[in-house]
Amino acid sequence: MSVSAPYSHRVTAHGLGGSHSLILAEVRDGARVLDVGCATGYLAAELSARGCRVVGIEPDPASAAQAERSCEHVVVGSFESSDDRAQIPGTFDFVIFGDVLEHLVDPWEALRAAHGLLSPGGVAVVSVPNVAAWPVRLGLLAGSFRYTDFGLLDRTHVRFFTRATAHELVEGAGFALERERLVHLEREPGRVRRALPLASSIVDRALARLLPGLFAQQFVMRLRPQGRS
Q1: Residue 152 burial (CB < 10 Å; 0-12/13-18/19+)?
Q2: Which of 12, 117, 189, 219 has the most CB atoms in a 10 Å sphere around its CB?
Q3: Which residues have CB under 8 Å from 10's CB, separation 6+?
C-alpha cells in the first residue's frame, strides 16, 4: 500500500480533516498552486472548484492517475528528486506540503527547494504532526511507542517534529513563519463527547490554543521566504 493510500481512504470515508480545512483557508481563490504529495487529489479538487490552477506531484502512480481529474498536470515522482522537480512547470503563488514533510528523508532540503518554485509574493503552506502531543507522551511514560497505519505515529513517518523543531525546520529552510494555526487532537468520541459534542469541541480548541505543545495534533504554517514581503 502506498503512503498516500490510508489517508485517501480516510478522506473518502470521513471527509477532509482539520489540517486540510486550515490549509485550504490559506489559499486564495484563483491562485496557481503546487500540491506536493497530492495523493488522489482531494485538496486539488477543493481548490479547483474555487478557480485555482493546481499542479500536483505524487510518487504513487495509481494515486497520481486519480489526481489528474482535479489537477491541470500531475508529475509522477518524488519531490526529493531534483530530476522529478525539474518536471514541475512554472512557478506558483502557493506551494502546499500537507502532512508530507514528515514522510521525507530530508524535509529541510525539500522545503528549501520550494523557494525556486514560488513566484514573487508566493508563500508555502505546511502542516506537520505534533509528536509531543499528550497521547504520545503518555505512551512513552508507559514505555510504549507503537506505530499505527495513520496519525501521529504513522508507520511511514521518517521524521518527527515538535512545535519547536517544526519552527527550526522553517527557519533552517530560509522561511519566516507568517502565521500558525493549530489543529486540536482528533479522538474517538467517548460517552461525554457523544453527549456534549459542541462543548467538547470548544474545550479541545481552547486547549490547543493554550497549550499547543500538549494538545495540538498538527501545526499548519504559512511561510514566506526570508527577505521577501
Answers
A1: buried
A2: 219
A3: 17, 150
Name residues whose C-beta falls within 8 Å of residue 96's C-beta, 6 or more positions apart in sequence.
Answer: 23, 27, 33, 34, 35, 36, 43, 124, 125, 126
Give residue 59's identity as a one-letter amino acid code. Answer: P
Return the CA Rg of the chain.
Answer: 17
CA distance 96 to 124: 6
Query: 216 with 184: CB under 8 angstroms?
Result: yes
Q: List the pLDDT tens digit at each of the 229 positions of the chain.
A: 456 655 555 554 445 778 999 999 999 999 999 999 999 999 999 999 999 999 999 999 999 999 999 999 999 999 999 999 999 999 999 999 999 999 999 999 999 999 999 999 999 999 999 999 999 999 999 999 999 888 898 999 999 999 999 999 999 999 999 999 999 887 555 554 555 555 556 666 777 777 788 889 999 999 999 977 6
